[in-house]
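Problem: given the chain below (379 residues), write out its structure.
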Amino acid sequence: MDKPAIGLVLAGGGARAAYQVGVLMAVAHMLPRDHGNPFPIISGTSAGAINAVGLAAGATHFRQATAFLAKMWKNLHVAQVYRADWPYFARAFLAWGGSVLTGGKLIHNPSSFLDNSPLRDLLTDAVRFDGVARAIDAGQLRALALTASCYTTGQSVTFFEGEDCIDEWQRHQRHGVRERIGIDHLMATSAIPLIFPAATISGRFYCDGAIRQMAPLSSALHLGAEKLFVVNLNTERKPQPERRLAGDRPTLAMIFGHLLSSIFFDSMAADMERLTRVNHTISLLDEQVRCSGRTMLKRVEVFNMSPSVSLEAIAFKHVQRFPPAMRFLMRGAGAMRKRGSVLASYLLFDPAYGKELIDLGYKDAMARRDEILIFLQNH
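Solution.
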């Protein structure tokens, strides 16, 4: 009997994605040193896609790939991801003001608040995209998938590179397209609207894959995954008592952080609930119905890994590490306060913050070592 294919699903979340690296490092250290890649199908969105590509490109040496990702995140600075210097912001504000005052006639509307061209340069130098094809040829990887949202068509598009037997798919407002994964796909899936500019692929404009991604688990399933290992970046919160203080009016940072959390986490939570209901429905069907082919439903085992500690609380400890210009703007938006640190948790690309998230991911995964090994044992 063939072993069930395990799909790794890496959610988006900006700088929070460092947490995923800690989880992956822990998995690598749980397994024998010479163990192959335990995740033959890898699916990533937004910042999770950066980890997905790094892991897939190094899938022939799984432990080394996780070490590479850890080194990258532990040495990552804001300036390597987006422009955050005074001259840039001076020009940006002049452009925004001039565009508003002239109705966009003399000065064109800026495409985004931040310029992430440094990230393109970093990833172009750091990621060996040809390693994905080598891993597939070596049998260490079946498929890699990155999801982006298309401004031109309004659809969620999953670009995948994988074995020849995998077919493209078409569903309502989402489809899978076979392509050779490259830097443009990585920039497209991580282009958070308003914050980063849209990326182009084959003449079409794309933004962050979490936008309009109604079924974030489906890509891995379309690629043949029979079990899913999901590394979420949303901390489960206990219900808080309602507060009615006059000073609790949300700041700009709180509003934008709320929007980003909705974009990155709500669809994942809904899809997890949907899959739980499907599994429950299947459990109610008798064996004869399941084996006769009269239903297309299949049970999918899911292992969900999420932070045990609030990531925004960790970000709040490090907000002073933003570059001066960015710190000035974040303070004005309210992101330097504890309740506004959600936004900071997405944008703070900093070695100290990244290291603490990696350490947390490693610790959380090791605390569930037995569960993880049982989940992976059939692979």
